[in-house]
Amino acid sequence: MTGISLNPDRFFSPDPTTRSLARRLYEPVARLPIVSPHGHVDPRLFADPQATFGSPADLFIIPDHYVTRMLYSQGIPLEQLGISPLNGKAETDHRKIWRLFCTNFHLLRGTPSGIWLQHALSEVFGINEKPCADNAENLYDHLAERLARPEYSPRKLFERFNIAVLCTTDAATSTLEHHRAIRASGWQGQIRPTFRPDGVTNLEAPGWQADILRLSEISGVEVVDYASFIQALEMRREFFKHMGAVATDHASLTPFTAELTPGAVEQIFQHALKGQATPNDAARFTAHMLMELARMSVEDGLVMQLHPGSLRNHNAGIFQQFGPDKGADIPIQTEYTRNLLPLLNKYGNDSRLTLILFTLDEATYARELAALAGHYPALKIGPPWWFHDSLNGMQRYFDQVMETAGLYNTAGFNDDTRAFCSIPARHDVWRRASANWVAGLVARHIVDLDEAQEMMQELAVGLARRAYRLA
Amino acid sequence: MTGISLNPDRFFSPDPTTRSLARRLYEPVARLPIVSPHGHVDPRLFADPQATFGSPADLFIIPDHYVTRMLYSQGIPLEQLGISPLNGKAETDHRKIWRLFCTNFHLLRGTPSGIWLQHALSEVFGINEKPCADNAENLYDHLAERLARPEYSPRKLFERFNIAVLCTTDAATSTLEHHRAIRASGWQGQIRPTFRPDGVTNLEAPGWQADILRLSEISGVEVVDYASFIQALEMRREFFKHMGAVATDHASLTPFTAELTPGAVEQIFQHALKGQATPNDAARFTAHMLMELARMSVEDGLVMQLHPGSLRNHNAGIFQQFGPDKGADIPIQTEYTRNLLPLLNKYGNDSRLTLILFTLDEATYARELAALAGHYPALKIGPPWWFHDSLNGMQRYFDQVMETAGLYNTAGFNDDTRAFCSIPARHDVWRRASANWVAGLVARHIVDLDEAQEMMQELAVGLARRAYRLA
Amino acid sequence: MTGISLNPDRFFSPDPTTRSLARRLYEPVARLPIVSPHGHVDPRLFADPQATFGSPADLFIIPDHYVTRMLYSQGIPLEQLGISPLNGKAETDHRKIWRLFCTNFHLLRGTPSGIWLQHALSEVFGINEKPCADNAENLYDHLAERLARPEYSPRKLFERFNIAVLCTTDAATSTLEHHRAIRASGWQGQIRPTFRPDGVTNLEAPGWQADILRLSEISGVEVVDYASFIQALEMRREFFKHMGAVATDHASLTPFTAELTPGAVEQIFQHALKGQATPNDAARFTAHMLMELARMSVEDGLVMQLHPGSLRNHNAGIFQQFGPDKGADIPIQTEYTRNLLPLLNKYGNDSRLTLILFTLDEATYARELAALAGHYPALKIGPPWWFHDSLNGMQRYFDQVMETAGLYNTAGFNDDTRAFCSIPARHDVWRRASANWVAGLVARHIVDLDEAQEMMQELAVGLARRAYRLA
Hints:
3 copies of one chain form a homotrimer.
Chain A: H1 16-30, E1 34-36, H2 44-47, H3 56-60, H4 65-73, H5 94-103, H6 112-124, H7 136-147, H8 154-160, E2 163-167, E3 170-171, H9 177-185, E4 191-192, E5 195-196, H10 198-201, H11 208-219, H12 226-242, E6 247-252, H13 262-273, H14 279-300, E7 303-308, E8 310-311, H15 316-322, E9 330-331, H16 341-347, E10 355-357, H17 363-373, E11 379-381, H18 391-405, H19 423-443, H20 449-467
Parallel strand pairs in A: 1-2, 2-4, 3-5, 6-7, 7-10, 10-11
Antiparallel strand pairs in A: 8-9
Helix pairs in contact in A: 1-19, 1-20, 6-19, 11-12, 14-16, 17-18, 18-19, 19-20
């Protein structure tokens, strides 16, 4: 059993000059409010003042595919981690799940999940031992006791975490009922929806036809053709904006963009309504919709986020047995220069648009994204995403993006998480990694300390606020 | 307003061991003459002893697309930066342009342009404040006064910069009149042309037909078919050599090489003469010409440079409004292993050829270029190019190229610049980055100090002289 | 003439904190036995107790394509390095070859070969000067004298090197006669064969038909169709297992996998038997065989290794004149996510399979391999391979693989070498690079010292033993 030590200098370069500069740069931003413009926390948690996080396994294991994938990769069946097969049973003894997790905690050595978990255990729950077989029972008892206390409710933790704004991710067909309940409750936590229409814009999304029906219903526009589809989307965007949304979010396998003729798009849409869209139809429709969505953003001012490059559900067996989001999404090589050409030629020079690009292919940082964002007024580069939201991922991002794109064409940090209790940890890692990067610039006399301090304010809060129009 | 401090240890690792070694390695090469075998300085500047650089905006802003692209990316129209639309007017008040630049100078924090500009302002013009809104007027006055002095003429600065040789880049159809004027003037500055025939070898170059007419005229060979085209090119090469050229330079979208049959190449050439060449014809012709140009280099000894991987004029709106070279060229993924196979199989084992390869796709450094250059006698790897001509770009280059290619299969440094006053800054960055890299090898006991000192001489001057046959 | 100094802190970061931690972590693993689960040492060396390494040129130059390629790249003909053309003569004066090597030893500055050679010269042969023109004769005499001594026989060095296990690489058609002789001799050195069937699974392998005849002969199964081919392979695997093999090894241009129908595979196989297989047939057959070989591994427990991404014999002239393995194999871009999908969907969830993936395309580390290995139970990531088996290659591997894959989904180290005397050097570089990486984690408070020490045991020995089932 070894201790969790959140050393005050953690993640900083061991070089004494860099370290002391990093500390000095980090200190003033360490406790700034958290701006979280992109994430996946369930708004339901905040809708009900009595909501709780459930058991320690509910909080830290079962929903966290970063954790369960690592255990699965070492041969531990997902069922034993409390993940229910679609037609079958999972382990329901949460204490047993917790024990399995603790026994295998060493697998997370040196991983971001290892860092986030230790931070949350220590800072949020006052635990100062690394989980292991020997302390599993004690830790479980300790956590369960804390989670039952009122001050560990989502709303209380939201306040304790000093979150200025938290954006959720919501389907185009969502009623935003939880967001409404939050507002109605009079609670002051700022929680905003984000418009994510993939379920209706991706013709291959499971249940697309059902979702279109839902879209018709909720928008009050009967979707019978492409024009009514667009009208329904626009009405939903208006509603989301009214509910506080500042952004939209879009996943696609590639960033391919292309404008179809009205005839071609109508034909594809009609095929889809009949359940006859081909994979090629779907790819062309996505390419077209990215342009249409950029047009909408120009008009309504919602910031557009694009997250391409993840081949979802790579493991067919796991997908069939357990469904999506089980840690089996694998990145692919991604190309932006040619794929975004049509969209950028049409909207890239228009400052009314902010298009934030993300990538899972780091080879594109220095090669494509930095050069694009260092030219087009509409472009910003999003923070290191998913597998790259890590100390090394951030360092590669700073080293490969900033010289060409310039700091001011980036968008600050996203925690992008479902795991609410990891939010302070994630922002802390970013602020520390930022301080370490900027300290390196000061130590090598590339920027001076005054500039460095301004850059730190931007990295911690300013860039995100500005990119997402949250000022 | 903050100072420009050109700290003597700038850009070196903050680690004291590495820093002191880097200083010791840098010192003896710091003031070696500058060898600039590849760049874009206008030879006209040196043809007329009375030539000047114009206003501060003429010198530092208007022609520098590294600077204007960054300002444009933040929403500043190019017209306001003094860049004239093809059919329209730009700001002509250079003091106003300068003010806008100074006000936005913070956008260049941590970028190579920021580094080069501060070096030139300080070292060349004695300015020790970073440009900002408050000092814009004073800096303008100061610079304008200096630029009017005779000792700030291009020739005087050339001498002050201690440039041993400067190679320009010149169209195949150029009369080289400025180079002739320089020679005729008796001035001793060594300025050499470089043969860049893209205008006539790229069938898609705007004005190709007109350029072919110009080629006929200037070579005295009427270009009516492929054979006469080749003959005209060979005569131009001979003339360039006679005028001091040591190298040729070629851009292409990809490094695809392939030899066409005489019938096929003639057919494409005849199509082109009639203005009927297709994009596919052009791609095949470029692939063929790269081999033909390698053959010519084998025969006449001109070093061949290949710069592939830039998708030119990505922003159609900017291209239509302002023309080329406005900061909208974006890199694409590049493949060398298969693309160069035909050329290397034919000429790669021939030491009479030196082919220097450049890349905008750093993923090819360790994967393809280092392995190719570590085998083929004819190959050398050029220095980090364009967006990668930066401190991090150089570090990645050293780390990813040298272990496999070996130092002696690289070609030293190119400044590749139009911005004459940035030349000392750029070579200084390279020499410092080199010293820092070699210091790291010494500090880790990979090479010893004697070896390190020899490597530094090579990096600063020797490799470039040898690769470009300038010894 | 400068000294070889094997500084005890070599390859560690110069930062004092990191360096002292690295030293502390390295020390306990420095002298652990060497586990070498993948390499190309000739088993014949150990079959005969009287075998010797020949001359200094035989040992260090002629068979080492890492060395000869670098000399060749600088214009030195392979013949002068003692490499015989298929129809011609090479230099036979080994002293002359040695002199040429010494005179050009500076070309290896900063390369892994330079490091390995200095280590072997110093540690194995007691030479403490870097080779150069001046000491060439003396070094030759010194080495020749040592090589003639009984204690420099392969078996004695094997023992002195403290090699616990050494796996060779052997054709499917090999009689494993040397392995049998080693066993029969009663010598205790553990030398195991590895099943490498590329000669019969790659329809484009030179001499495929002859190899199929040999396969029939040696297996006792007449190979007349696909079924008998598979049966023969399975019998050979059984024999290899019986002779101590724990693994198979497979090269392929790409990692493309796909299952053919029985009819399709039979048709291709029959074409091949008639010498009529097309390149497309061969690619599809390889894709199919990778799945078949995974199936066999599931059944017989042999660990499967896949080494894709090398375009063999890039230099046609060298290949025609000298044959394969002359330093002209060049990496290509590689894609794993889509290519391995069929294989992983069929066998990736099966813990009976261990599939160890290697790459020559480092862009796939963080993008594809780490994400795949961090999910599929059957996958492990092999160590940095070939051109990336270097200090920087290892650092990039640690930085790009470990955060997402986790240490425990990697496979430790392979020396992958023909050059027996470089084995201790190569493992030492790995152990030092590992210590330096882990020291950085400790210095930045990402793992604590207890964890670090456990990780070091894994990196030095444990991961390799476990991945290759050598426990």
